[in-house]
Specification:
The structure holds three protein chains of three kinds. Chain B is an all-alpha fold. Chain B has seven helices and no strands. Helices cover about 80% and strands about 0% of the residues of chain B. Classes of the chains: A mainly alpha, B mainly alpha, C alpha/beta.
Chain lengths: ~260, ~220, ~270
């Protein structure tokens, strides 16, 4: 009872949808519609799963009088106040999210939105700092990632093409210096030739590269997005979806049962 | 007047969260806990006003008003009776909170998992894998050099990325070569995604600073 | 020399934070805008809306919340204004509960500004759980999912909804996406019912949506603040997104410069070792 019924429910619901895709006629079409309707109702209840453990966690903190307990009091009282306010507005205006509702007008607009928006805007600072710290040209692949990121970052903003020539210039001069230093430290003649050659090529390339980027950077960014990036993303997502399908089949057939634990 | 007070509250909460950039502090913690507490209560409001009220109670409203609670049962049609199946499953979901019968919640979870699996399979197959594979069948020679070149790159990028994805263990021989080309394209794609992610994050900050300067400070002058 | 390289490879994070803050604030204060040309995928979206016959129904889906508000909210307002100006009808719903009111606030604001009437020119249906199931069932009969609007008013008593039953009555779907709901719209509404879709998305998810655009599963793609700015240029009303792009340019240059400086420090330190 505790295992068989859930497995049967999973099998029937999942299998029905697959059958309905290939045979959309009666009775599968309307059965699918019916099941979807039930799913809409039942899955709403998953929204509040997790809220209980959140509240319980903070309740325990308060009871044990932990150091952080005052914050837990704030959390639980906000929860209660907001819920009460929402219900009050819901009864008064038909829905707490009606345009005239005080809940929407004051709580949502002036408290919830600024909190959520600011919380996520912190990421702007973190990503700048992380880019500086972690983005190192450690090998060919890392360098490719850097170049592609640079093209997109500068190619997708106005006037990025004005700045790009300086960046490519500095990068190539840097490459030349590194190559010369590397060449000096090598013993074999052919190695010296390769590295000095690379240095010469970098210096010669500065002006053509700068010129190319100045006039073509937005188009280059377009090309990166629409051609190699697109192909790779397509391959990745086909792979991901194939994996998801395999997983879903295992679930429907009852091979994968971790969700029953 | 009330609007002005709430505008200041909004600005205060914004600054409280920004204060985290200096270091973790009580102001930030207070704002964070208000955020989490209110988000939690939102889910209840949504469940009630956009699910329980219209989908569960809605279909009973008319009979209930006409015949009252005790009289309505005799006047239920098929629509109402069949609704007891999802209502039962929804109640099962809530039984999670009552330990002796908590196992019944598995019935509801099994239903949502089965539906999600079925929807996932059909959507991915019909909506992604088939049309995206079709869109990759591009002409290798289209009559113009650049388009043909781009077509070839798209085909190669898609195929080699897939090879990398599925043969990640053994990278030897021809397959290994393909996988190496695949990782190159993946790096280009990740770079592009990173560039766009930077754009997204900065936009969020632009929004907040715009609020502080023009809406909050702007209201003073 | 060595100290210099060590220093530039270890700039304090608070200095970087300050740089980012200044880089955003100053361009916003100066309000200087750069000229640029709209991206092709945005222009096709704009042209598609321009080509719709007057009175067509447009379904707008709010699938984001305040965490990505600056990218999508101004664009939503600009697009709603464009839709109303072209006398198109707007039916709004959403799959992200926490952000749903943002859609409604914008809709009410623009409708008031343009003198449109609730129930005749626009309607707000609200939210139902179960994303893919909602999308699939709208393909059969929208009343099966939303028999009432967000206030509990029956759809049949709203003039705008009288002739709307499923996707065949909806000329265009515009999804405002901050996550994976856009994939569901394409995989169910487009693949099964051939619904025409424009996706407008946060920059984070935009690169993942390009395959849909190339495969013609969507008719337009408007990504991030840049896409929003492009759209503002196309409707000839430059606003928040356009102004924000200057700050965006400055910060991107700062970040690329920081990456370059970090790498100079890294390469130099590696040689020393």
């Amino acid at each position: 009872m505790k295992k068989e019924v859930p497995l049967a429910i999973t099998f029937i619901s999942g299998f029905l949808l697959i059958v309905a895709l290939f045979i959309p006629h009666e009775p599968f079409g309307s059965l699918q519609e019916r099941f979807n309707d039930w799913y809409i109702i039942v899955s709403g209840f998953t929204l509040i799963l997790g809220v209980d453990s959140l509240i319980l966690y903070h309740w325990r903190k308060i009871k044990r009088k932990e150091k952080e307990a005052p914050y837990s009091i704030i959390l639980i009282s906000t929860f209660v106040i907001v819920l009460a306010w929402g219900i009050y507005s819901g009864v008064k205006y038909g829905n707490p999210f009606a345009p005239a509702s005080s809940f929407l007008r004051y709580f949502y607009t002036y408290m919830f939105v600024p909190l959520q928006a600011t919380m996520f805007s912190l990421l702007a600072f973190f990503i700048a700092s992380a880019a500086y710290r972690a983005f190192r040209a450690r090998g060919l692949n890392a360098t490719l990632l850097l170049i592609s990121a640079g093209i997109v970052m500068l190619g997708r903003v106005p006037k990025g093409e004005e700045a790009a020539p300086y960046f490519i210039g500095i990068t190539l001069i840097l490459l030349a210096i590194v190559s010369v230093l590397e060449g000096v430290s090598r013993v074999e003649v052919y190695e010296k030739i390769i590295f000095f050659g690379l240095a010469v090529v970098s210096i010669i390339a500065i002006f053509p590269a700068a010129w190319f980027l100045k006039f073509n950077l937005p188009r280059l960014a377009d090309w990166v997005m629409n051609v190699p990036q697109l192909g790779a993303k397509r391959g990745l997502f086909i792979g991901i979806w194939l994996g998801a399908i395999a997983m879903a089949i295992r679930i429907i057939l009852g091979i994968e049962r971790t969700y029953l634990k | 007047m009330i609007d002005t007070i709430f505008l200041w509250i909004a600005a205060g909460l914004t600054l409280a969260i920004f204060s985290f950039l200096y270091k973790d502090n009580p102001f930030y913690k207070v704002a964070e806990h208000i955020y989490v507490g209110s988000a939690a209560s939102f889910w209840f409001l949504y469940l009630w006003f956009f699910d329980v009220e219209p989908k569960i109670l809605g279909p009973f409203k008319e009979v209930f008003h006409a015949y009252g609670f005790w009289g309505m049962w005799a006047h239920f049609g098929a629509t109402q009776w069949i609704l007891f199946i999802p209502i039962f499953l929804s109640i099962c979901m809530l039984l999670r909170f009552i330990p002796p019968v908590a196992w019944l919640s598995r019935w509801a979870i099994a239903f949502t998992v089965g539906m999600a699996a079925g929807l996932g399979i059909t959507g991915a197959l019909q909506g992604y894998i088939v049309p995206q594979t079709q869109a990759t069948l591009l002409p290798v020679w289209s009559g113009d050099l650049l388009t043909s070149f781009n077509n070839i790159i798209i085909i190669v990028a898609t195929l080699t990325t897939l090879v990398y994805f599925f043969f990640s263990r053994e990278h030897k021989g021809i397959i290994g070569g393909f996988a190496k080309i695949g990782i190159t394209f993946i790096m280009i794609a990740f770079g592009a995604s990173f560039g766009y992610t930077v754009m997204a994050r900065i936009s969020l900050l632009i929004g907040r600073i715009h609020f502080l300067i023009f809406e909050w400070l702007g209201s003073l002058f | 020399m060595r100290e210099f390289f060590e220093r530039i490879s270890k700039i304090d994070r608070r200095i970087i934070y300050l740089l980012v803050f200044i880089g955003v604030t100053i361009p916003l204060l100066t309000r200087k805008g750069f000229e640029f040309k709209p991206l092709q995928e945005v222009e096709t979206a704009y042209n598609f809306i321009e080509s719709l016959p007057e009175g067509s129904n447009v379904l707008v889906s709010i699938d984001y919340d305040a965490a990505s508000m600056p990218e999508l909210q101004p664009l939503l307002e600009v697009m709603l204004r464009h839709l109303f100006r072209r006398n198109l009808k707007v039916i709004m719903l959403g799959h992200w509960p926490l952000g749903l009111p943002l859609g409604q606030i914008a809709l009410e604001k623009i409708a008031k500004e343009m003198g449109r009437k609730y129930g005749e020119d626009y309607v707000f249906l609200g939210y139902r759980p179960g994303i893919a199931a909602v999308i699939l069932n709208i393909g059969k009969e929208i009343r099966g999912v939303f028999d009432v609007d967000y206030r509990g008013i029956y759809l049949d008593s709203l003039p705008i909804m009288r002739n709307v039953h499923n996707y065949s009555d909806i000329a265009l779907l515009i999804g405002f996406e901050a996550g994976s709901v856009g994939d569901f719209w394409v995989q169910f509404a487009q693949a099964r019912f051939n619904q025409k879709i424009i996706l407008t998305s946060t920059a984070v998810v935009t690169p993942d949506l390009y395959p849909y655009y190339q495969a013609k599963q969507i008719v337009g793609l408007i990504g991030g603040l840049r896409g929003a700015a492009d759209y503002e240029i196309l409707v000839k009303k430059k606003g928040f997104a356009y102004a924000g792009m200057t700050a965006q340019t400055i910060i991107h240059i700062i970040i690329v410069a920081l990456i370059l400086i970090g790498n100079i420090g890294y390469l130099a330190m590696r040689r020393v070792r």
